[in-house]
Amino acid sequence: MTETPLDTAHAAMEAAPEDEPARLRFYERLADSELFLLLMEEARGDTLKPEVFDLPEASYTLAFDREERLAQFAGRPAPYAALPGRVIAAMAAGAGVGLGVNLDVAPSAILIPPDATAWLADTLSHAPDEVEARIEAFLPPAGLPDTLLTGLDAKLARAAGLARCAYLVAVRYDSGTKGHLLAIVDAAEGAEGALARAVNEALAFSGIEAGALDVGFFAASDPAAAHLAKAGLRFDLPEPPEQASRPAAAPGRDPEKPPILR
Question: Taking every annotated instance into account, which residue ranges of this chain make up the domain SseB protein N-terminal (predicted)?
Answer without folding.
Answer: 11-117
